């Protein structure tokens, strides 16, 4: 989705903005632009397409200055075009605005403004902001922004400069994240820490409805009512090299290979093998309530929703708690009736997904307690939940979520284990689960060691246009996730199904042109899955099995087999999904797709 990067300091701003925009590319965008204060002038340029298009436009141009704002746009109002790209400006070209989010009452405001004078040059909702700020300006840019905030409805992260207030950038936030970066050479503002991590890891998060005036030497935060706020800096874990490929051809592949390390990070310091109980400091603020809780609803979107769906089975295995899973995009519109002491667990890599954020706000309004399972530290969901567990997967740059998914499964297991041990789960079972979690990174390495074999399977099948993914119980959501991964990065049509549903419809699709990926580890569902494989084979459908190593019974009937080392049944999904991720990656690679930035997708969906 859209990205913001701003800088004011003692360095030449143009290369800093271009570099920052490149770091935001992974979020998905269709056009970009920047505005630089150059003495008394503001110089600005925009371009459709990749950042290199913008770069080639501005390279060689005289754009001196140490104050600037820049933006990547993901079209919502108006097609991707130069006119619709940001910055947007007012009629007299005094005010330049970059904006993430959506102004919901822009139609009304636009009609009113057009009657009063300004002619609009774009189809965007953002242009309304530029005109309003110009009209509200009376010497103080932050006052003009504050007044404008009171006139608009919707969501925004804003960066604004004004010709008459050189040396300052005013930023504001409602529903769209903004972070101020503090360095010895000036200040940054960005929607994502990735844009500034090369220069600083000291940050200050802007909260809802706050405005900040940022200069080279200082920043000052205030509320929408102009009340001053003191806030100290935090240090973020990100390192500049996290956003580098380090020899891998794509971030997706790099992140798939990072999974042994990221799982180690997710469990580090959290396991107490002797007692068979994990230690989760982040949920201690709600522990007294949580330990009595009998109803949990897991809410999330996309891949995080599939992690939640595996989590439901894990909770049912390890605890006595009734667990429901909800798609955040639907959940937010339901009539929610919670039993007393219900916990909502929001699961999100970015912590900024608009639907998930709206779902927890609605749940809170209805009296539920909130826990976040989040990757991005300091993100909106992590701040709005009562307690939480961080995944510690590190920055995930590939748009297709991989390493974060397996970390989510790990943290969900830790939470279920903690609650289960507090209920009826025995010490022996607790210890067994902890030992299995400790062994997981080594087992993932065994799956990764089959990458060449999986690549060869992909080479054989990547031209098939329709795929089916089947699994049962813990691996039913993995079938959904496997299909999602394949369609996201390769654009191959794929469907995920609970294998028991085969006979209720999807079996009609089976023919020699439709490969099925069957997830069949040696668990209690093995025989049932085996019958499904037979049904497919008797209709001449090719089958790629993801099965437990040494399962010759499966090997004899299927066309291809990827082997998983044996593990506790509820941890099989962690291994099976790695095989699915590699299969999707290699198919996409054979098809020459833009793997890290698939068409039409954004890393973090911050609008509805
Ligand atoms: O940041 P979140 O985990 O809340 O994001 C949820 C989904 O948008 C995300 O998982 C999406 O489905 C990815 N493209 C999956 O690869």
From TrEMBL:
Q: Where in the cell is it found?
A: Cytoplasm
Q: Where is the SIS domain?
A: 286-425, 457-598
Kindly give the PROSITE patterns that the UniProt entry links to this protein. GATASE_TYPE_2, SIS
Q: Which Pfam families match?
A: GATase_6 (PF13522), SIS (PF01380)
Q: Which GO terms describe its biological process?
A: amino sugar biosynthetic process; carbohydrate metabolic process; fructose 6-phosphate metabolic process; protein N-linked glycosylation; UDP-N-acetylglucosamine metabolic process
EC top class, as a word = transferase
- What residues make up the catalytic site? 2, 603
Put simply, this protein is called: Glutamine--fructose-6-phosphate aminotransferase [isomerizing]
Q: Which gene encodes it?
A: glmS
